[in-house]
C-alpha cells in the first residue's frame, strides 16, 4: 500500500491489504534462524514443498488493538503461540518457541504501526502467523525445511454488520474427520470447508454450521468460529468436541461469562434436536469477535433464537465485556493483555 494512500477506517472489511513489513524466519538442520523483517510479500519455494502437495502447514490469527490513549496491545498472544505448537506437533513440524512467536508478532505490529486502526473505528490489525513445510521432497513425509512468517493487515468485521445477527444453515459436509485435524489450525480443514461455505453463501446464509463428524447430531462449529448458546435459564453453553478448533475467544468468554456476568458456564454436547433450550446464540472467534446468530436453518425451517435483527441482551453484554478488555477500556483478567512497546 502506497504511503500516500488513505485507508477508510470505518469501511474496512476482511480483505487483504499489503502492509509495509512482514517477519520471516527459516528452519534448517534443526534450528530456526534469527528471523528478519522484510518488505517483500512474495515467498519463493521449491515446487515440491510439502505445504503445496501434502498440506503440511498451519496458521494462527490474532489481533492488535489501539486503545483510547493511543497505545497498542495484543490479546492473549501466548495462547496463539501454544496452539500453533499443538498444530506443529500434530503435523510433524518443528516447534516454534513461544517467545519467538510473540516477538515476531510484536515486531510486525510495531513496523506496521501506521496500519493499526484508530481507537473508536472498531477496526483492528489482524495478525496472521503461519508455518509451511518447504524444500525439495516428493515422498509423503515431513519437509526438510520450514518457513515461519507473520504478516498483518487492518480489518473490520468478518461477518458483515458486526453486532447485527446473521443466519446459518447446517452443512451436509464435514470440515474435519473424527480423530483428524479438527483441533488444529491446519489449512486442509479450511480447504474442506470451502464448498460448504459456498453452498451456504449462495443460499443467502452468512455461513454454515458444521456438525460433529461421527454422528451428525450435534453442533461442532459455526463456520470459522466456535458456537455458544445462552439457555433459557441463563447458562452459557458451548460444544465439547474433539473435532473443533479450541477457540481462544471461546475460552475467554467461558471465563468472562462466569466471572464478569456471573453466569453458569458449561461445555457440553449441543444437540440439534434441542435448540429450543437456547434464547440466544452466537459465533465467536478472533475474526468473528462475537457475531449473534439470528437463526439456524434445520429441517427446512429457520430456527430463530432471540431475533433475526436484534442482538440479545446477554450476547451484547458479553460482546461489550470482551471488546472492552481487548481495546483497554475494561480491566481484563491478569495476563491477557500484552502491550506493544
Ligand atoms: N474455529 C475455527 C475453525 C477458526 O478458524 C477460528 C479462528 O481462529 C475459530 C474457531 C476461533 O478461534 P479463536 O477464537 O482462537 O480465533
Ligand atoms: C480467525 O478468526 O483468526 C480465523 O482464522 C478465522 C478465519 C479468517 C480463517
Name its key features.
341 residues, alpha+beta, D-amino Acid Aminotransferase, Chain A, domain 1, D-amino Acid Aminotransferase, Chain A, domain 2, 2 domains, 9-stranded antiparallel sheet, 18 strands, binds pyridoxal-5'-phosphate, Aminotransferase-like, branched-chain amino acid biosynthesis, Branched-chain-amino-acid aminotransferase, amino-acid biosynthesis, L-leucine-2-oxoglutarate transaminase activity
Would you mind describing this structure in some detail?
InterPro entries: Aminotrans_IV, Aminotrans_IV_CS, Aminotransferase-like, B_amino_transII, BCAT-like_C, BCAT-like_N, BCAT_family. Its EC number is 2.6.1.42. The chain is an alpha+beta fold and 341 residues long. Strands 1, 2, 3, 4, 5, 6, 7, 8 and 18 form a nine-stranded antiparallel sheet that branches. Strand 16 (289-298) and strand 17 (301-304) form a beta hairpin. The longest helix is centred in the middle third of the chain and has 16 residues, at 187-202. The two termini are 24 Å apart. Helix 2 packs across helix 3 (98-111). The chain folds into two domains: 9-155, D-amino Acid Aminotransferase, Chain A, domain 1 (2-Layer Sandwich); 166-326, D-amino Acid Aminotransferase, Chain A, domain 2 (Alpha-Beta Barrel). It is 22% helix and 29% strand. The chain is globular and about 55 Å long. The protein has helices at 50-53, 77-90, 98-111, 187-202, 248-259, 313-326, and strands at 22-28, 31-32, 36-38, 57-59, 62-66, 72-75, 124-134, 145-155, 166-170, 207-211, 219-222, 226-231, 235-238, 264-267, 278-285, 289-298, 301-304, 337-340. The structure holds pyridoxal-5'-phosphate and 2-OXO-4-methylpentanoic acid (COI).
Amino acid at each position: 500500500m502506497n504511503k500516500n494512500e488513505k485507508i477508510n477506517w470505518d469501511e474496512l472489511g476482511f480483505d487483504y491489504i499489503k502492509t509495509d513489513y512482514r517477519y520471516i524466519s527459516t528452519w534448517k538442520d534443526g534450528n530456526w534462524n534469527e528471523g528478519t523483517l522484510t518488505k517483500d510479500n512474495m515467498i519463493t519455494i521449491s515446487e515440491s514443498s510439502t505445504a503445496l502437495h501434502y498440506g503440511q502447514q498451519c496458521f494462527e490469527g490474532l489481533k492488535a488493538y489501539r486503545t483510547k490513549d493511543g497505545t497498542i496491545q495484543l490479546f492473549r498472544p501466548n495462547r496463539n503461540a501454544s496452539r500453533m505448537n499443538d498444530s506443529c506437533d500434530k503435523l510433524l513440524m518443528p516447534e516454534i518457541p513461544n517467545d519467538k512467536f510473540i516477538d515476531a508478532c510484536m515486531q510486525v505490529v510495531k513496523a506496521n504501526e501506521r496500519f493499526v486502526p484508530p481507537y473508536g473505528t472498531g477496526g483492528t490489525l489482524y495478525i496472521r502467523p503461519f508455518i509451511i513445510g518447504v524444500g525439495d521432497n516428493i515422498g509423503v513425509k515431513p519437509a526438510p525445511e520450514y518457513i515461519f512468517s507473520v504478516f498483518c493487515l487492518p480489518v473490520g468485521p468478518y461477518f458483515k454488520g458486526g453486532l447485527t445477527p446473521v443466519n446459518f444453515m447446517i452443512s451436509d459436509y464435514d470440515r474435519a474427520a473424527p480423530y483428524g485435524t479438527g483441533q488444529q489450525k491446519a489449512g486442509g480443514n479450511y480447504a474442506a470447508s470451502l464448498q460448504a461455505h459456498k453452498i451456504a453463501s449462495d443460499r443467502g446464509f452468512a455461513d454454515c454450521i458444521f456438525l460433529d463428524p461421527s454422528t451428525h447430531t450435534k453442533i461442532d462449529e459455526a463456520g470459522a468460529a466456535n458456537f455458544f448458546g445462552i439457555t433459557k435459564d441463563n447458562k452459557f453453553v458451548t460444544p465439547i468436541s474433539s473435532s473443533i478448533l479450541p477457540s481462544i475467544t471461546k475460552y475467554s468468554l467461558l471465563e468472562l461469562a462466569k466471572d464478569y456476568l456471573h453466569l453458569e458456564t458449561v461445555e457440553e454436547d449441543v444437540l440439534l434436536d434441542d435448540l429450543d433450550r437456547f434464547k440466544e446464540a452466537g459465533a465467536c472467534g478472533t475474526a468473528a469477535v462475537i457475531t449473534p446468530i439470528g437463526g439456524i436453518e434445520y429441517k427446512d425451517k429457520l430456527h430463530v433464537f432471540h431475533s433475526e435483527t436484534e442482538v440479545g441482551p446477554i450476547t451484547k453484554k458479553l460482546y461489550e465485556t470482551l471488546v472492552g478488555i481487548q481495546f483497554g477500556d475494561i480491566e481484563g483478567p491478569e495476563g491477557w493483555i500484552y502491550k506493544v512497546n
